[in-house]
Amino acid sequence: MIDFLFRLSSSLNKLLLMAGALVLCLMMALATSNMIFGFLGQPIKGAYEATGFLGALAVCLALAPTQQVRGYITVTIFDRFIPRKVRQLLDLVAQIILACFFFLIIRQLVLLGFSLRLFGELSESLRVPFYPLIFVLAFGFGALVLTLLAQLLSSRKY
User: Fold this and answer.
1) Helix (H, G, I), strand (E, B) or coil at 124
2) Residues of the chain predicted below pLDDT 70
3) 151 closest CA partner among 62, 69, 84
4) Contacts (Cβ under 8 Å, ≥6 apart) of 74
5) Whole-prediction pTM
6) Fewest CB within a 10 Å sphere: which of 14, 30, 78, 137?
7) Quick one: which H or E segment has residue 13?
8) CA 30 to each of CA 49, 51, 130, 150: distance values in angstroms, whole numbers, following the listed order
9) Would you give the distance in Å from CA 6 to the centre of its chain?
10) Rg (CA), the chain
């Protein structure tokens, strides 16, 4: 069961990393095109809004793969003063707290997505619905929680 969860998390994170890279490339292409067309006097309508949406997607899709490889910044100034077993316990407690916190974020995002869908909320300049973006963000956080759980349950060291 633990191996299945770990493999599922790893496979999902590879897909999310590829999707995040694609979104980042789209965001760069849009921003570059908007600068070029803006210089020519024809900026792309809604480019600023679309760049914001794509930026949010790129960050959210990269959360779980970053957690999987522990690619975040850590402050280790006190590590030499704390025994190894205590550090491992603190890491375990922190991961449990993070998983619970991100689960609450997922819950709120799903509720927000359904609310935005119900009321037909649209973005200001592009007039596209917000709720699909919110659901993709919830999915990205869900992959992060899955990765945290896989790391908690796995005996492997990363």
Assistant:
1) coil
2) 155-158
3) 69
4) none
5) 0.90
6) 78
7) helix 2-39
8) 11, 7, 19, 36
9) 18
10) 19
Tokens linked to 112: 């927000």
Q: Please report, for the chain, the start and end positions of each structural domain, with discontinuous segments joined by +.
A: 2-153
Question: Which SS3 state, helix, strand or coil, does residue 125 take?
Answer: coil
User: Are 9 and 156 spatial neighbours (Cβ–Cβ below 8 Å)?
Assistant: no
User: Three-state SS for 41?
Assistant: coil
Q: Any idea which residue has 């200001």 for tokens?
A: 124
* In the block, residue with structure tokens 């300049």: 125
| Torsion sign, CA atoms 52, 57, 58, 59 | positive
Q: What is the pLDDT of residues 31-77, one digit of tens each?
A: 999 999 999 999 999 999 999 999 999 999 999 999 999 888 888 88
| The length of the chain, given as a count of residues | 158
Query: With the CA atoms of 82, 95, 102 and 3 taken in that order, what torsion angle do they form, in degrees rounded to the nearest 10?
Result: 160
Question: Which helix H or strand E contains 59, and what residues bound it?
Answer: helix 47-68
